[in-house]
């Protein structure tokens, strides 16, 4: 659907909030905290952005976008080529980072731009009268996004941890030392930050069912030893060779198959395909370890093959 960029707010030197409203002025489809939308950009890319506002607001969606110097073209396009009043094509919201219904106490962790889904979660937890605290980690005070929202609505629940302010440091082990089965942890931010929080939680006895995360960027992979392999598509009589330096999705597209791509990092699951035979080398962060072990689905945007041949169904 097409929405209008109603307002743009410069939250930090590198993060802008885009307020989106229906072109017709009507209400937008409902969403829950942790949801994101797919945004189709004028440069041909599709990217996912988390909704940051309260899910009780049906008149607008708010996304926060970091102008990343290492952008693959999505954030740069939004920052440089879109203005208030422009139209933007988006999907309906979908949620891969929901608040667990068993949550009676929540600890929210946000690193940098990771505040975007976490802020919406904080609003929903408040509305449901669920106890929570929000720990927001940034390099400097000027990099705090949504500062006004946090200080106005989260008094007593927001804790800022700022690298260059020693008195705001966080003792992670102490923070995570007390928990029960109804305590749940939610974390979003850079991969190294998320690994630190999750590793500490596991060390302190939190189980995997209590820990919830959302990746913005997939972990860096060692591709030096990638090898070529063959894809066979059920019902297509020509084998497709995938070289060591191309993705399965690219090889399939070169043979005329329409493979929907979005994040292109194995985060969103948009491109998932069925595996009929062979063993995938899973490189996504979308599926669980249990789903990987089943070896019946894989993400052609980044995953490869352990076996010499994969037979798939499209």
For the structure shown, list the relevant keywords.
5-stranded parallel beta sheet, alpha/beta, 314 residues, globular, Rossmann fold
**What is the second-level CATH architecture of the largest domain?**
3-Layer(aba) Sandwich
Specify the structural class: alpha/beta
Any low-confidence stretches, pLDDT <50, length ≥5? Answer: none
SSE order: EEEEEHEEEHEHEHEHEEEHEEHEEE
Task: Name the CATH superfamily assignment of the largest domain.
Answer: Nucleotide-binding domain of ferredoxin-NADP reductase (FNR) module
The amount of helix comes to: 10-25%
- Note the main sheet: 7 strands, antiparallel
What is the beta-strand fraction? 25-35%
What's the Cα radius of gyration? 21 Å
When the domains are counted, the total is 3
Overall pLDDT confidence: 94
Q: What is the CATH topology descriptor of the largest domain?
A: Rossmann fold
Which class of the largest domain in CATH terms? Alpha Beta
Distance between the termini: 26 Å
Shape: globular
How many strands?
A: 19
How many helices? The count is 7
Tell me about this structure.
- This protein has helices at about 75-80, 115-125, 145-155, 170-175, 190-205, 250-255, 290-295; strands at about 1-10, 15-20, 35-40, 45-50, 60-65, 85-90, 95, 105-110, 130-140, 160, 185-190, 210-215, 230-235, 240, 275, 280, 295-300, 305, 310-314.
- It is of the alpha/beta class.
- The protein has 3 domains: about 1-95, Translation factors (Elongation Factor Tu (Ef-tu), domain 3, Beta Barrel); about 105-215, Nucleotide-binding domain of ferredoxin-NADP reductase (FNR) module (Rossmann fold); about 230-314, Roll (Ubiquitin-like (UB roll)), CATH 3.10.20.
- The strands form 4 sheets. Strands 1, 2, 3, 4, 5, 6 and 7 form a 7-stranded antiparallel beta sheet that branches. The protein has a 5-stranded parallel beta sheet with strand order 10-9-8-11-12, sandwiched between helices.
- It has 7 helices and 19 strands.
């Amino acid at each position: 659907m097409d929405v209008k960029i109603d307002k743009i707010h410069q939250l930090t030197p590198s993060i802008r909030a885009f307020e989106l409203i229906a072109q017709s002025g009507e209400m937008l489809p409902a969403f829950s905290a942790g949801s994101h939308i797919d945004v189709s950009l004028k440069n041909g890319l599709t990217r996912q952005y988390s909704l940051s506002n309260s899910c009780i607001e049906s008149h607008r969606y708010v996304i926060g976008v970091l102008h990343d110097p290492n952008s693959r073209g999505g954030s740069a396009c939004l920052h440089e080529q879109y203005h208030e009043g422009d139209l933007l094509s988006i999907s309906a919201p979908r949620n891969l980072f929901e608040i667990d219904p068993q949550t009676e106490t929540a600890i929210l962790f946000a690193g940098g731009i990771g505040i975007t889904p976490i802020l919406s979660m904080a609003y929903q937890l408040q509305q449901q009268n669920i106890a929570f605290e929000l720990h927001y980690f940034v390099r400097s005070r000027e990099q705090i996004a949504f500062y006004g929202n946090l200080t106005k609505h989260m008094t007593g629940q927001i804790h800022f941890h700022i690298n260059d302010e020693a008195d705001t440091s966080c003792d992670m082990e102490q923070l995570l030392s007390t928990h029960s089965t109804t305590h749940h942890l939610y974390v979003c931010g850079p991969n190294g930050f998320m690994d630190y929080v999750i590793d500490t939680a596991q060390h302190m006895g939190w189980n995997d069912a209590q820990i919830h995360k959302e990746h913005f960027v997939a972990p860096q992979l060692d591709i030096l030893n990638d090898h070529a392999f063959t894809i066979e598509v059920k019902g297509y009589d020509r084998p497709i060779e995938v070289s060591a330096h191309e993705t399965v999705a690219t090889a399939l597209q070169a043979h005329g198959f329409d493979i929907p791509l979005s994040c292109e990092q194995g985060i969103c699951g948009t491109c998932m395909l069925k595996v009929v035979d062979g063993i995938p080398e899973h490189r996504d962060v979308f599926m669980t370890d249990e789903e990987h072990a089943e070896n019946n689905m894989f993400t052609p945007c980044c995953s490869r093959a352990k076996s010499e041949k994969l037979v798939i169904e499209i």
